[in-house]
Write a structure and sequence with these properties.
Blueprint lengths: L1 H9 L10 H14 L17 H15 L9 H11 L3 H9 L1 H8 L3 H5 L2 H14 L4 E4 L8 E3 L12 E3 L6 E4 L1 H10 L15 H19 L2 H4 L5 H29 L2 H7 L1
Antiparallel strand pairs: 1-4, 2-3
Helix pairs in contact: 3-10, 5-6, 5-12, 8-12, 9-12, 12-13
Pfam families: Choline_kinase
InterPro entries: Kinase-like_dom_sf
GO molecular function, one term: choline kinase activity
């Protein structure tokens, strides 16, 4: 639902704080006609028209953060990448191969886990993420939606629109793709952390990525856009690969918690 609304609104980036009544009715009729299902129970005044200007503003804020020269260790990405892999230590690995984790996977017939090898997936994702050669920058490293705040008066006063990035406790120097991944993993999900909606398409990522590139170019000079590593296509690829790394990391962490502390958590996490 929200993906379609975003696409409709992306065609017109205006500064008005609210969509007109006419536009709301158009969106409502399109959704009700072409989507069906629960839309028959939704009224036009229940629609929440998303503001694409917030997306562009947040992208610029992230670009400014990535441009900072923070007086901390600049090679922390090496430790962090190793730490991701260490989540899959011997006890968890053994349980995954032939112990409690393996039994739960078989008992619940978790097809994806039965058909793939998590170790191979993580190994591939780690290798590719490093091989992309993306720049190591000062990253937030936890850009989930709870750490992105939008000023709540912007719906009544467009001049009040602002976006704030909070909770820097995981911040360090890391591949920039990590922040793109965390943002897009949450994109359009109704739940706080995860959901059943699809990862955004390349086209749906462009509004954010183009605003990021524009701001980085303003901060770093015209030479920024002349490097292939800073192209739209490269940033899309970084977002996808690091999203896979991030999701593998979360799966590993869930398995570890399930084995070490709370077996019931293991089943719930599946």
């Amino acid at each position: 639902m929200s993906e379609m609304l975003k696409n409709l609104n992306r065609e017109s980036l205006h500064s008005e704080s609210r969509a007109s009544v006419e536009d709301r009715l158009k969106v409502y009729e399109l959704c009700k006609t072409h989507l069906g299902g629960h839309w028959s129970d939704v009224s036009a005044d229940q629609l929440v028209i998303k503001r694409v200007t917030c997306v562009a503003l947040f992208a610029k804020k992230m670009a400014k953060m990535h441009s900072l020269d923070v007086p901390i260790a600049k090679d922390s990405h090496q430790f962090l990448m190793k730490n991701y892999w260490d989540l899959f230590a011997a006890p968890v690995f053994e349980s995954y191969k032939k112990g409690h984790i393996y039994e739960e996977i078989q008992r619940h017939k978790l097809q994806t886990f039965m058909e793939m090898d998590l170790c191979d997936e993580m190994s591939w994702a780690m290798e590719v993420s490093v091989g992309l050669g993306g720049p190591v920058v000062f990253t937030h490293n936890d850009l989930m939606r709870r750490n992105i705040l939008v000023r709540n008066t912007c719906h009544t006063n467009a001049d009040d629109l602002d976006v704030f990035i909070v909770d820097y406790d995981w911040s360090c120097y890391m591949f920039r793709g990590a922040d793109f991944a965390d943002y897009f993993i949450d994109w359009c999900q109704p739940e706080l952390d995860f959901g059943g909606n699809h990862f955004p398409t390349d086209q749906q990522m462009y509004a954010f990525i183009d605003a990021y590139i524009s701001e980085m170019s303003a901060l770093s000079g015209d030479s920024y856009t002349k490097r292939v590593v800073n192209s739209r296509e490269t940033l899309v690829m970084e977002a996808k690969v690091f999203a896979l790394v991030s999701l593998c990391k979360i799966v590993f962490w869930s398995l570890k918690i399930g084995i070490d502390e709370n077996p019931e958590y293991l089943v719930n996490s599946f």
